[in-house]
Amino acid sequence: MDNRAKPSQDTSRDAHRASSFCVFERLRSAGLRPTRQRVALCNLIFGAGDRHLSAEELHDEAHRAGEPVSLATVYNTLHQFTDAGLVRPLSAEGQRTYFDTNTSDHFHFFVESDNTMIDIPDGAISVENIPAPPEGMEIVNIDVVVRVRRKREKTSLS
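Above: the chain sequence. Below: its structure as C-alpha cells.
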C-alpha cells in the first residue's frame, strides 16, 4: 500500500505552510504572539485580500471554517490587530465598526442597504483646510465615509 501523499496534496500542504509562516511572521513583526486563535483569525482576515468586515462577520466566518471562537475573542483580537496597525477601524453605522485590511490612507462609500464598505478610488476626494490638532496631539488619519443607497425609481402620479 502506498501511503505517500499525492502531488496535489503536497502542493496544498506546502501552500498552507507558506501561508501559515507568513501569518506567524506578520503577527510577530506586529509585536503579537501567534496564538492558535490569532493565527486562525489572521488567516481568515487576510486570506481574501483587502476587504472590510465587522466582528460579527468574522465570527460567522470563523465558525463556518470550524474555528470555535467566541464573539468576545473576535472583538479582542480585532482590537489587538488595530493597536498593532494590522487593520484600520471604520465607523459608519451607529454601533457597528468595520475593520479594513488596507491600512493606507483612503476613503470609503458605505452602502446602506447592504451594510458594506467600498473603497473610493484614489484621488477622487481631496481634503483641504485641515485644522491644526490641539496642543500635544497629532492627526493619525482622516476618515471620510460617503453614505450611498440605490436610486429609487420615480413613479408618476396618475
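Residues 88 and 104 are 9 Å apart (CA to CA).
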